[in-house]
Amino acid sequence: MQNKPRAKDNPRDGANEATAEKQRAIQREQDRKEPTGESGQAKSPPKTGKRDYPSDFPSQHLAKPGQEADMQLKPQFMAPDYRGSGKLEGMTALVTGGDSGIGRAVAVLFAREGADVAIVYLSSHEDAEETKRCIGKEGRKCLLIAGDVKDPAFCKDAVEKTVAQFRKLDILVNNAAFQEHAHSLEDITEERMMETFSTNIMGYIRMARAALPHLKEGASIINTGSVTGLKGSPQLLDYSATKGAIHAFTMSLASAVLEKGIRVNAVAPGPVWTPLNPADQSSREIVEFGKKTDFKRPAQPEELSPAYVFLASPVCSSYITGIVLPVTGSVGS
Hints:
Elements: H1 13-31, E1 92-96, H2 101-112, E2 116-121, H3 125-137, E3 142-146, H4 152-166, E4 171-174, H5 190-199, H6 201-211, E5 220-224, H7 227-231, H8 237-257, E6 263-269, H9 283-286, H10 305-312, H11 314-317, E7 324-327
Parallel strand pairs: 1-2, 1-4, 2-3, 4-5, 5-6, 6-7
Helix pairs in contact: 2-3, 2-10, 4-6, 5-6
């Protein structure tokens, strides 16, 4: 049984849940078109670090937007072997889509490196509260802000709430995303195309526009791109297009704000085990997720988050801007 998000005293909750329901409706429409068939067998994945990561995944399909709390196999995000060293000491970060998945893993490591973190999320209150708890265990403060990045007024409000709470903003991580696969271009209706573009690339632009007046020298923006923005994907036509646009936006904005001392970079993940994927792929397809990479498995969120720390920290990357850093699990991409 799926757990319903807890209600909060937030005037935007009705609108946020309406967006979540719209996304579920798109999901239901695609689910009706799904083919049936048997899954194949994957080779054993190589081991390249201390931690053992799963390569076999449960046959589970989540309702959008997908809650980490509902996943049968929980993503690994705590990075227990990662030791903080004050790389972000005294900074404030705002992470969209920070309630779960990559965003949660990034928020936890930012806190471990000394940053307070504001989390923007749509409607998964239970996940957001768990992320806040984990940030608190790292000894840092966390502000939860529920809302929809499709709304320009909300983006401005989220930034202003962050600055009011923490007196500053040093790092913006644009990470919120909507993804729904399609087996043909004809499956992509005008409504679902607008949902994807308005959430993914337009949401990033809105958040960056709202944040820029508050960012000072040494600040940074990090955008979550995708391997699909580098190579494309026949089942993720609109999503891939937004990720390619995010990469171009990253390089363009990096040039535009460099004289202000602000760096802008992107991380392009390959397949990552987060709620986004079992909320997209069918229960038949998800068991094969990530097995076509050279690693024969998807990444866990904690394998992505150190890249965000590297790009956020002036100590590590003061001479890096306008790059798209691929973390894809495959050779040469």
